[in-house]
């Protein structure tokens, strides 16, 4: 396997999605799959031709074996400890309407949440160009938080770039508990991703009420202009604040089927450009395309596009029926 250029760590769970729109109190059929923010990003990176390693823990159970097989099958270098003492976590996705859903997490005490600094092989972080973390992992447990901080310290010492997607999950911790934990990770990041609301959580000094004051938030997060603050704005696209300037990229108009996973695909698109030394504008363009494509099909990661699919999406002269 080619040496990885990116390493990421976090929890991947089984994912049951209702077979049709309706409450899971009544819908009787479900689709079985897997999902997790970091493997969603890893799979997307792999589809984009970027060699990537994922580190995590799974239970000694069928869902754990499914996670390992699926992610490895997508070409990701999987370093998963099998934890015999805890089950693989689970997410349930209830389809609430056309293009809308509600997610329930069953992850407290899961194998993935027991991730530890010792799960990260010696020399691995130091050998890549970029480490990607999300704000989910440090809120899973004390050992997972220590694993994140240890990886960040190792990356910093080795001159490896650090990327953090705030990805605040309110079910893991209330905002006042999460804010300092997310803040300590963001402080070490070269690249920070988040929605305006999420960035408001991690502005030093407390939770801002007015997430619409995004210019101010970005400046507060990066007063010296040394980082890239990337703001995800859903259908409106995205913006990057870097070196005292801002670049905006409008969103694409698509028929939305399922927006879950768009943020992860967006991040992967952006990072794929970052590790290849692309400009902010080029990174935003690819990221927006990846996010938009992901909205057009169900699933957290299955529709992650290849470069050829992005090109087709961006309007190459493609026959609507391909044979
Ligand atoms: N409805 C949409 N139409 C087109 N692009 C979208 C849409 N929703 C999301 N995207 C793309 O995916 C990116 C991430 O989506 P967003 O919803 O902002 O992130 P998150 O899922 O992390 O909250 C957006 O910046 C945009 O590029
Ligand atoms: O790992 C978790 O806790 C998850 O919630 C997995 C999510 O399904 C994705 O991270 C999707 O997130 P977006 O790309 O922002 O829609």
Explain this structure to me?
Belongs to the carbohydrate kinase PfkB family. Residues 5-306 form the Carbohydrate kinase PfkB domain. It comes from Saccharopolyspora erythraea (strain ATCC 11635 / DSM 40517 / JCM 4748 / NBRC 13426 / NCIMB 8594 / NRRL 2338). This is 2-keto-3-deoxygluconate kinase. Its EC number is 2.7.1.45. By secondary structure, the chain is α/β, with parallel strands linked by helices. The protein has a single domain (6-315), classed as UDP-N-acetylmuramoyl-L-alanine:D-glutamate ligase (3-Layer(aba) Sandwich), CATH 3.40.1190.20. It contains nine helices and 13 strands. The strands form two sheets. Strands 5-4-1-8-9-10-11-12-13 form a nine-stranded mixed β-sheet, with helices on both faces. Helix 1 crosses helix 7, helix 5 packs across helix 6 (214-221) and helix 7 runs antiparallel to helix 8. The radius of gyration is 19 Å and the shape is globular. 2-keto 3 deoxy 6 phospho gluconate (ELE) binds at residues 35-37, 40, 136, 169, 260-264, 300.
